[in-house]
Amino acid sequence: MDEKRVLLIVGGGIAAYKALELVRLLRKAGVAVRPILTKAGAQFVTPLSLSALAEDKVYAQLFSLTDEAEMGHIELSRSADLVVVAPATADLMAKAANGLASDLASTTLLATDKPVLMAPAMNVRMWEHAATRRNLAQLQADGVRFVGPDEGAMACGEYGPGRMAEPAAIFQAILALLETARPLEGKRAIVTAGPTAEPIDPVRMITNRSSGKQGYAIAGALAALGADVVLVSGPTALAAPAGVNRVNVETAQEMLSACEAALPAEIAVCVAAVADWRPETVGGSKLKKGAAGPPPIALVENPDILATLSKAARRPRLVIGFAAETDDVEANAKAKLRKKGCDWIVANDVSVAGTMGGDLNAVAIVTAKGVERWERAPKAEVARRLAQRIAEALP
Ligand SMILES: Cc1cc2nc3c(=O)[nH]c(=O)nc-3n(C[C@H](O)[C@H](O)[C@H](O)COP(=O)(O)O)c2cc1C
To answer: If DSSP states are collapsed to H, E and C, what string results for the chain?
Structure first.
Protein backbone atom coordinates (compact mmCIF):
# COMPACT_ATOMS: atom_id res chain seq x y z
CA MET A 1 0.00 0.00 0.00
CA ASP A 2 3.11 2.23 0.06
CA GLU A 3 2.19 4.25 -2.95
CA LYS A 4 -1.44 4.84 -1.87
CA ARG A 5 -2.45 8.28 -0.62
CA VAL A 6 -5.49 9.47 1.30
CA LEU A 7 -6.61 13.06 1.75
CA LEU A 8 -8.35 13.07 5.12
CA ILE A 9 -10.80 15.86 5.96
CA VAL A 10 -11.48 16.06 9.69
CA GLY A 11 -14.71 17.92 10.49
CA GLY A 12 -15.88 19.53 13.70
CA GLY A 13 -17.48 16.84 15.83
CA ILE A 14 -16.65 15.01 19.03
CA ALA A 15 -15.71 11.97 16.92
CA ALA A 16 -12.73 13.91 15.50
CA TYR A 17 -10.59 12.24 18.17
CA LYS A 18 -11.26 8.91 16.45
CA ALA A 19 -9.74 10.31 13.26
CA LEU A 20 -6.37 10.19 15.04
CA GLU A 21 -6.68 6.43 15.48
CA LEU A 22 -7.69 6.14 11.83
CA VAL A 23 -4.53 7.99 10.79
CA ARG A 24 -2.46 5.63 12.94
CA LEU A 25 -4.04 2.56 11.30
CA LEU A 26 -3.48 3.97 7.82
CA ARG A 27 0.14 4.89 8.46
CA LYS A 28 0.81 1.45 9.96
CA ALA A 29 -0.55 -0.11 6.75
CA GLY A 30 1.78 2.09 4.69
CA VAL A 31 -0.88 4.50 3.40
CA ALA A 32 0.19 8.17 3.14
CA VAL A 33 -2.23 10.57 4.85
CA ARG A 34 -2.52 14.29 4.10
CA PRO A 35 -4.90 15.94 6.58
CA ILE A 36 -7.27 18.86 6.12
CA LEU A 37 -8.67 20.15 9.41
CA THR A 38 -11.76 22.37 9.38
CA LYS A 39 -11.90 25.40 11.67
CA ALA A 40 -14.49 23.56 13.79
CA GLY A 41 -12.41 20.37 13.64
CA ALA A 42 -9.51 22.25 15.25
CA GLN A 43 -11.76 22.78 18.30
CA PHE A 44 -11.69 19.03 18.86
CA VAL A 45 -8.20 17.86 17.81
CA THR A 46 -5.03 19.88 17.47
CA PRO A 47 -3.24 20.31 14.15
CA LEU A 48 -0.10 19.14 15.95
CA SER A 49 -1.56 15.72 16.86
CA LEU A 50 -2.87 15.21 13.35
CA SER A 51 0.36 16.30 11.75
CA ALA A 52 2.54 14.17 14.04
CA LEU A 53 0.50 11.02 13.37
CA ALA A 54 0.10 11.69 9.65
CA GLU A 55 3.77 12.67 9.30
CA ASP A 56 2.62 15.44 6.97
CA LYS A 57 1.59 19.05 7.29
CA VAL A 58 -2.01 19.89 8.13
CA TYR A 59 -3.91 22.07 5.68
CA ALA A 60 -6.54 24.29 7.25
CA GLN A 61 -6.88 27.57 5.33
CA LEU A 62 -8.29 28.29 1.91
CA PHE A 63 -6.68 31.71 1.85
CA SER A 64 -3.14 30.94 2.88
CA LEU A 65 -0.35 32.51 0.88
CA THR A 66 2.22 29.90 1.89
CA ASP A 67 -0.07 26.89 1.39
CA GLU A 68 -1.37 28.19 -1.92
CA ALA A 69 2.19 28.79 -3.15
CA GLU A 70 3.31 25.32 -1.99
CA MET A 71 0.30 23.39 -3.17
CA GLY A 72 -2.75 25.11 -4.62
CA HIS A 73 -6.12 23.98 -3.32
CA ILE A 74 -7.03 22.38 -6.66
CA GLU A 75 -3.78 20.41 -6.70
CA LEU A 76 -4.42 19.43 -3.07
CA SER A 77 -7.86 18.05 -3.99
CA ARG A 78 -6.26 15.81 -6.60
CA SER A 79 -3.12 14.86 -4.65
CA ALA A 80 -4.51 11.60 -3.27
CA ASP A 81 -6.09 8.40 -4.53
CA LEU A 82 -9.07 8.82 -2.23
CA VAL A 83 -10.68 11.65 -0.24
CA VAL A 84 -12.01 10.60 3.16
CA VAL A 85 -14.22 12.75 5.40
CA ALA A 86 -14.14 11.56 9.02
CA PRO A 87 -16.02 12.77 10.87
CA ALA A 88 -18.38 13.99 8.16
CA THR A 89 -20.44 16.60 9.99
CA ALA A 90 -24.01 17.48 9.01
CA ASP A 91 -22.53 20.77 7.85
CA LEU A 92 -19.91 19.19 5.57
CA MET A 93 -22.50 16.83 4.12
CA ALA A 94 -24.84 19.77 3.44
CA LYS A 95 -22.09 21.78 1.79
CA ALA A 96 -20.96 18.88 -0.38
CA ALA A 97 -24.52 17.93 -1.35
CA ASN A 98 -25.18 21.49 -2.48
CA GLY A 99 -21.87 22.21 -4.15
CA LEU A 100 -20.76 24.89 -1.73
CA ALA A 101 -17.12 25.92 -1.74
CA SER A 102 -16.92 28.22 1.23
CA ASP A 103 -13.82 26.87 2.98
CA LEU A 104 -10.86 24.61 2.21
CA ALA A 105 -12.70 21.33 3.03
CA SER A 106 -15.78 22.06 0.92
CA THR A 107 -13.74 23.56 -1.93
CA THR A 108 -11.59 20.42 -1.98
CA LEU A 109 -14.68 18.20 -2.07
CA LEU A 110 -16.06 20.18 -5.00
CA ALA A 111 -12.77 20.29 -6.90
CA THR A 112 -11.67 16.70 -6.49
CA ASP A 113 -11.83 14.16 -9.26
CA LYS A 114 -11.11 11.28 -6.88
CA PRO A 115 -13.55 8.93 -5.09
CA VAL A 116 -14.93 10.29 -1.82
CA LEU A 117 -15.72 8.27 1.30
CA MET A 118 -17.67 9.86 4.16
CA ALA A 119 -17.99 8.63 7.75
CA PRO A 120 -20.92 10.64 9.14
CA ALA A 121 -21.04 11.52 12.83
CA MET A 122 -23.73 13.57 14.44
CA ASN A 123 -26.53 13.66 16.96
CA VAL A 124 -29.35 11.24 16.12
CA ARG A 125 -31.87 14.06 15.50
CA MET A 126 -29.45 15.75 13.11
CA TRP A 127 -28.89 12.42 11.32
CA GLU A 128 -32.63 11.76 11.04
CA HIS A 129 -33.53 15.33 10.03
CA ALA A 130 -35.20 15.60 6.63
CA ALA A 131 -32.43 17.94 5.44
CA THR A 132 -29.70 15.40 6.25
CA ARG A 133 -31.76 12.61 4.63
CA ARG A 134 -31.97 14.74 1.47
CA ASN A 135 -28.25 15.52 1.57
CA LEU A 136 -27.37 11.85 2.08
CA ALA A 137 -29.54 10.78 -0.87
CA GLN A 138 -28.00 13.49 -3.06
CA LEU A 139 -24.44 12.56 -2.10
CA GLN A 140 -25.14 8.87 -2.74
CA ALA A 141 -26.58 9.80 -6.14
CA ASP A 142 -23.39 11.80 -6.78
CA GLY A 143 -21.31 8.66 -6.14
CA VAL A 144 -20.06 9.44 -2.64
CA ARG A 145 -19.48 6.27 -0.60
CA PHE A 146 -20.49 5.99 3.06
CA VAL A 147 -19.30 3.97 6.01
CA GLY A 148 -21.56 3.96 9.09
CA PRO A 149 -22.88 5.61 11.09
CA ASP A 150 -23.26 3.09 13.89
CA GLU A 151 -26.04 3.02 16.42
CA GLY A 152 -25.30 3.56 20.08
CA ALA A 153 -24.90 5.89 23.01
CA MET A 154 -23.67 9.32 21.99
CA ALA A 155 -21.45 11.87 23.64
CA CYS A 156 -24.53 14.15 23.86
CA GLY A 157 -26.32 11.55 26.02
CA GLU A 158 -28.84 10.43 23.37
CA TYR A 159 -29.05 7.00 21.76
CA GLY A 160 -29.51 5.98 18.15
CA PRO A 161 -27.84 6.05 14.76
CA GLY A 162 -25.27 8.82 14.29
CA ARG A 163 -22.12 7.53 16.02
CA MET A 164 -19.19 7.58 13.67
CA ALA A 165 -18.15 4.10 12.49
CA GLU A 166 -15.20 2.72 14.43
CA PRO A 167 -11.78 3.67 13.01
CA ALA A 168 -11.22 0.00 12.15
CA ALA A 169 -14.36 -0.06 9.99
CA ILE A 170 -13.41 3.20 8.23
CA PHE A 171 -9.90 1.83 7.70
CA GLN A 172 -11.35 -1.26 6.05
CA ALA A 173 -13.66 0.75 3.83
CA ILE A 174 -10.63 2.79 2.77
CA LEU A 175 -8.58 -0.32 2.02
CA ALA A 176 -11.47 -1.73 0.00
CA LEU A 177 -11.52 1.42 -2.12
CA LEU A 178 -7.73 1.61 -2.45
CA GLU A 179 -7.11 -2.05 -3.04
CA THR A 180 -6.62 -2.74 -6.69
CA ALA A 181 -5.34 -6.29 -6.29
CA ARG A 182 -8.40 -8.46 -5.76
CA PRO A 183 -7.03 -11.98 -5.30
CA LEU A 184 -10.30 -13.26 -3.80
CA GLU A 185 -12.45 -12.01 -6.69
CA GLY A 186 -15.07 -14.64 -7.55
CA LYS A 187 -14.66 -16.47 -4.23
CA ARG A 188 -17.42 -16.58 -1.65
CA ALA A 189 -16.69 -16.27 2.07
CA ILE A 190 -18.99 -16.87 5.02
CA VAL A 191 -18.01 -14.99 8.19
CA THR A 192 -19.87 -15.35 11.47
CA ALA A 193 -19.55 -12.56 14.02
CA GLY A 194 -20.88 -11.22 17.28
CA PRO A 195 -22.63 -13.04 20.10
CA THR A 196 -25.73 -15.18 19.87
CA ALA A 197 -28.77 -14.47 22.03
CA GLU A 198 -30.66 -17.50 23.33
CA PRO A 199 -34.13 -16.62 24.64
CA ILE A 200 -35.32 -17.73 28.06
CA ASP A 201 -38.68 -15.99 27.67
CA PRO A 202 -39.87 -13.03 25.54
CA VAL A 203 -37.77 -10.56 27.56
CA ARG A 204 -34.77 -12.49 28.89
CA MET A 205 -31.91 -14.20 27.13
CA ILE A 206 -28.49 -15.82 27.52
CA THR A 207 -25.80 -13.96 25.63
CA ASN A 208 -22.13 -12.97 25.96
CA ARG A 209 -19.75 -10.03 25.72
CA SER A 210 -18.65 -10.45 22.09
CA SER A 211 -18.75 -7.07 20.31
CA GLY A 212 -18.44 -8.46 16.78
CA LYS A 213 -15.52 -6.11 16.03
CA GLN A 214 -13.03 -8.81 15.00
CA GLY A 215 -15.53 -10.68 12.81
CA TYR A 216 -16.74 -7.48 11.13
CA ALA A 217 -13.13 -6.48 10.48
CA ILE A 218 -12.42 -9.85 8.87
CA ALA A 219 -15.56 -9.63 6.72
CA GLY A 220 -14.46 -6.18 5.55
CA ALA A 221 -10.87 -7.29 4.90
CA LEU A 222 -12.01 -10.25 2.78
CA ALA A 223 -14.38 -7.98 0.82
CA ALA A 224 -11.49 -5.55 0.28
CA LEU A 225 -9.63 -8.37 -1.46
CA GLY A 226 -12.58 -8.98 -3.74
CA ALA A 227 -14.38 -11.82 -1.93
CA ASP A 228 -18.17 -12.05 -2.07
CA VAL A 229 -18.78 -11.96 1.69
CA VAL A 230 -21.85 -13.11 3.60
CA LEU A 231 -21.56 -11.83 7.17
CA VAL A 232 -23.83 -13.85 9.45
CA SER A 233 -24.09 -11.61 12.48
CA GLY A 234 -25.53 -11.96 15.94
CA PRO A 235 -26.88 -8.80 17.59
CA THR A 236 -24.27 -5.99 17.50
CA ALA A 237 -24.38 -2.21 17.19
CA LEU A 238 -21.91 -2.17 14.28
CA ALA A 239 -22.62 -1.02 10.75
CA ALA A 240 -21.95 -3.63 8.07
CA PRO A 241 -18.55 -3.13 6.42
CA ALA A 242 -18.58 -1.75 2.89
CA GLY A 243 -19.38 -4.33 0.21
CA VAL A 244 -20.50 -7.02 2.65
CA ASN A 245 -23.85 -8.76 2.58
CA ARG A 246 -25.04 -9.01 6.20
CA VAL A 247 -27.59 -11.55 7.44
CA ASN A 248 -28.86 -10.77 10.94
CA VAL A 249 -29.58 -13.66 13.29
CA GLU A 250 -30.12 -14.09 17.01
CA THR A 251 -29.73 -17.71 18.05
CA ALA A 252 -27.09 -20.35 17.30
CA GLN A 253 -29.67 -22.40 15.38
CA GLU A 254 -30.51 -19.39 13.20
CA MET A 255 -26.79 -18.74 12.69
CA LEU A 256 -26.20 -22.30 11.50
CA SER A 257 -29.19 -22.17 9.13
CA ALA A 258 -27.97 -18.87 7.66
CA CYS A 259 -24.47 -20.33 7.15
CA GLU A 260 -25.86 -23.42 5.46
CA ALA A 261 -28.06 -21.26 3.25
CA ALA A 262 -24.94 -19.32 2.19
CA LEU A 263 -23.15 -22.47 0.96
CA PRO A 264 -21.42 -23.26 -1.33
CA ALA A 265 -18.45 -21.09 -0.36
CA GLU A 266 -14.67 -21.37 -0.65
CA ILE A 267 -14.01 -19.82 2.75
CA ALA A 268 -15.69 -19.98 6.15
CA VAL A 269 -14.39 -17.97 9.09
CA CYS A 270 -16.27 -18.67 12.29
CA VAL A 271 -15.57 -15.75 14.60
CA ALA A 272 -18.93 -15.52 16.36
CA ALA A 273 -19.08 -16.31 20.05
CA VAL A 274 -21.83 -18.90 19.76
CA ALA A 275 -23.58 -19.87 22.99
CA ASP A 276 -22.72 -23.48 23.83
CA TRP A 277 -26.10 -24.02 25.41
CA ARG A 278 -29.63 -22.69 25.11
CA PRO A 279 -32.64 -23.02 27.40
CA GLU A 280 -34.48 -26.25 26.64
CA THR A 281 -37.85 -24.52 26.65
CA VAL A 282 -38.66 -20.90 25.93
CA GLY A 283 -41.45 -19.38 28.00
CA GLY A 284 -44.28 -18.05 25.84
CA SER A 285 -44.82 -15.25 28.34
CA LYS A 286 -42.55 -13.55 30.86
CA LEU A 287 -41.60 -15.87 33.74
CA LYS A 288 -43.06 -14.43 36.91
CA LYS A 289 -41.11 -13.83 40.08
CA GLY A 290 -42.91 -15.75 42.79
CA ALA A 291 -42.83 -17.51 46.11
CA ALA A 292 -41.42 -20.66 44.46
CA GLY A 293 -38.11 -18.83 43.98
CA PRO A 294 -35.96 -18.74 40.83
CA PRO A 295 -37.17 -21.11 38.10
CA PRO A 296 -34.81 -23.91 37.13
CA ILE A 297 -33.53 -23.36 33.59
CA ALA A 298 -32.61 -26.62 31.87
CA LEU A 299 -30.02 -26.15 29.14
CA VAL A 300 -29.48 -28.17 25.97
CA GLU A 301 -26.46 -28.14 23.71
CA ASN A 302 -26.47 -25.84 20.70
CA PRO A 303 -25.34 -27.02 17.27
CA ASP A 304 -21.60 -26.68 16.70
CA ILE A 305 -21.40 -24.39 13.67
CA LEU A 306 -17.64 -24.76 13.10
CA ALA A 307 -17.75 -28.56 13.30
CA THR A 308 -20.87 -28.74 11.12
CA LEU A 309 -19.32 -26.59 8.38
CA SER A 310 -16.05 -28.58 8.63
CA LYS A 311 -17.92 -31.81 7.99
CA ALA A 312 -20.50 -30.49 5.53
CA ALA A 313 -20.96 -32.29 2.22
CA ARG A 314 -20.33 -28.94 0.54
CA ARG A 315 -17.41 -28.13 2.88
CA PRO A 316 -15.68 -24.82 2.11
CA ARG A 317 -12.08 -25.33 0.95
CA LEU A 318 -10.77 -23.38 3.92
CA VAL A 319 -12.58 -23.51 7.26
CA ILE A 320 -11.19 -21.30 10.02
CA GLY A 321 -12.38 -21.18 13.60
CA PHE A 322 -11.65 -18.75 16.39
CA ALA A 323 -10.87 -20.00 19.85
CA ALA A 324 -11.41 -17.48 22.60
CA GLU A 325 -9.61 -19.02 25.53
CA THR A 326 -8.59 -17.80 28.92
CA ASP A 327 -5.96 -20.43 29.74
CA ASP A 328 -3.69 -22.91 27.94
CA VAL A 329 -4.59 -20.98 24.81
CA GLU A 330 -2.43 -22.84 22.29
CA ALA A 331 -2.94 -26.33 23.74
CA ASN A 332 -6.69 -25.78 23.70
CA ALA A 333 -6.54 -24.41 20.15
CA LYS A 334 -4.64 -27.48 18.92
CA ALA A 335 -7.21 -29.75 20.56
CA LYS A 336 -10.02 -27.73 18.98
CA LEU A 337 -8.42 -28.01 15.53
CA ARG A 338 -8.46 -31.81 15.79
CA LYS A 339 -11.89 -32.06 17.36
CA LYS A 340 -13.69 -29.75 14.93
CA GLY A 341 -12.00 -30.86 11.74
CA CYS A 342 -11.30 -27.31 10.58
CA ASP A 343 -8.11 -26.15 8.80
CA TRP A 344 -6.91 -23.29 10.99
CA ILE A 345 -7.70 -22.08 14.46
CA VAL A 346 -7.07 -18.46 15.32
CA ALA A 347 -6.49 -18.55 19.07
CA ASN A 348 -6.95 -15.41 21.06
CA ASP A 349 -6.31 -14.99 24.72
CA VAL A 350 -9.39 -13.22 26.02
CA SER A 351 -7.99 -13.21 29.53
CA VAL A 352 -5.90 -10.20 28.40
CA ALA A 353 -7.87 -7.17 29.63
CA GLY A 354 -9.56 -5.26 26.82
CA THR A 355 -9.52 -8.02 24.19
CA MET A 356 -13.23 -8.84 24.35
CA GLY A 357 -15.03 -5.72 23.17
CA GLY A 358 -11.76 -3.82 22.76
CA ASP A 359 -9.83 -2.80 19.66
CA LEU A 360 -6.64 -4.84 20.06
CA ASN A 361 -6.06 -8.54 19.68
CA ALA A 362 -3.09 -10.85 20.09
CA VAL A 363 -3.61 -14.05 18.14
CA ALA A 364 -1.81 -17.27 17.31
CA ILE A 365 -2.58 -19.06 14.04
CA VAL A 366 -2.70 -22.79 14.70
CA THR A 367 -2.57 -25.13 11.69
CA ALA A 368 -1.59 -28.76 11.17
CA LYS A 369 1.90 -27.40 10.42
CA GLY A 370 2.37 -25.60 13.71
CA VAL A 371 1.75 -22.39 15.59
CA GLU A 372 2.50 -18.85 14.45
CA ARG A 373 2.19 -16.06 16.99
CA TRP A 374 1.28 -12.55 15.82
CA GLU A 375 2.09 -9.54 17.95
CA ARG A 376 -0.77 -7.63 19.60
CA ALA A 377 -2.29 -5.34 16.98
CA PRO A 378 -5.52 -3.49 16.17
CA LYS A 379 -8.29 -5.92 15.18
CA ALA A 380 -8.40 -4.27 11.75
CA GLU A 381 -4.71 -5.06 11.25
CA VAL A 382 -5.19 -8.67 12.41
CA ALA A 383 -8.06 -8.91 9.91
CA ARG A 384 -5.98 -7.50 7.06
CA ARG A 385 -3.13 -9.96 7.70
CA LEU A 386 -5.53 -12.87 8.02
CA ALA A 387 -7.32 -11.98 4.78
CA GLN A 388 -3.95 -11.77 2.98
CA ARG A 389 -3.00 -15.16 4.42
CA ILE A 390 -6.32 -16.64 3.27
CA ALA A 391 -5.75 -15.26 -0.24
CA GLU A 392 -2.28 -16.86 -0.32
CA ALA A 393 -3.72 -20.20 0.81
CA LEU A 394 -6.39 -20.21 -1.93
CA PRO A 395 -4.68 -19.60 -5.24
C1 LIG B 1 -19.41 20.19 21.42
C2 LIG B 1 -19.87 20.15 20.00
C3 LIG B 1 -19.96 18.95 19.34
C4 LIG B 1 -20.40 18.88 18.01
N5 LIG B 1 -20.49 17.67 17.42
C6 LIG B 1 -20.96 17.61 16.16
C7 LIG B 1 -21.07 16.35 15.53
O8 LIG B 1 -20.75 15.30 16.07
N9 LIG B 1 -21.56 16.32 14.26
C10 LIG B 1 -21.92 17.45 13.59
O11 LIG B 1 -22.37 17.35 12.46
N12 LIG B 1 -21.78 18.66 14.17
C13 LIG B 1 -21.31 18.76 15.42
N14 LIG B 1 -21.19 19.99 16.02
C15 LIG B 1 -21.51 21.19 15.25
C16 LIG B 1 -20.38 21.50 14.28
O17 LIG B 1 -19.15 21.66 14.98
C18 LIG B 1 -20.72 22.76 13.50
O19 LIG B 1 -21.84 22.50 12.66
C20 LIG B 1 -19.57 23.25 12.64
O21 LIG B 1 -19.99 24.40 11.93
C22 LIG B 1 -19.11 22.19 11.66
O23 LIG B 1 -18.05 22.70 10.88
P24 LIG B 1 -17.30 21.80 9.81
O25 LIG B 1 -18.34 21.03 9.09
O26 LIG B 1 -16.60 22.77 8.91
O27 LIG B 1 -16.31 20.97 10.53
C28 LIG B 1 -20.73 20.08 17.34
C29 LIG B 1 -20.62 21.29 17.99
C30 LIG B 1 -20.20 21.33 19.29
C31 LIG B 1 -20.09 22.66 19.98
So the answer is: CCCCEEEEEECCCCCHHHHHHHHHHHHHCCCEEEEEECCCHHHCCCHHHHHHHHCCCCECCCCCHHHHHHCCHHHHHCCCCEEEEEEECHHHHHHHHHCCCCCHHHHHHHHCCCCEEEEECCCHHHHHCHHHHHHHHHHHHCCCEECCCEEEECCCCCEEEEECCCHHHHHHHHHHHHCCCCCCCCCEEEEEECECCEECCCCCEECCCCCCHHHHHHHHHHHHCCCEEEEEECCCCCCCCCCEEEEECCCHHHHHHHHHHHCCCCEEEECCECCCEEECCCCCCCCCCCCCCCCCCCEEECCCHHHHHHHCCCCCCEEEEEEEECCCHHHHHHHHHHHHCCCEEEEEECCCCCCCCCCEECEEEEECCEEEECCCEEHHHHHHHHHHHHHHHCC
Please tell me the residue having the least CA distance from ligand 1 atom 18.
Answer: 12
Tell the residue nearest (CA) to atom 6 of ligand 1.
13
Q: What is the pLDDT of residues 82-106, one digit of tens each?
A: 999 999 999 999 999 999 999 999 9
Delineate the domains of the chain, giving CATH numbers in brackets.
5-178 (3.40.50.1950), 188-393 (3.40.50.10300)
Q: Tell me: pLDDT of 192 over 80.
A: yes
Is residue 89 lining ligand 1, measured as CB closer than 6 Å? yes
Ligand 1 site-directed mutation target among 91, 158, 163, most atoms within 8 Å of CB: 91
Q: Whose alpha carbon is nearest atom 14 of ligand 1?
A: 13
Say yes or no to pLDDT of 202 above 70: yes
Q: Tell me if residue 156 is catalytic.
A: yes
Judge if the beta carbon of residue 119 lies within 6 A of ligand 1: no
302-319 pLDDT, tens digit each: 999 999 999 999 999 999
Whether the predicted model's global pTM rises above the 0.90 cut = no
Mean pLDDT (the chain) is 91
Between the CA of 91 and the centroid of ligand 1 the distance, in Å, is 7
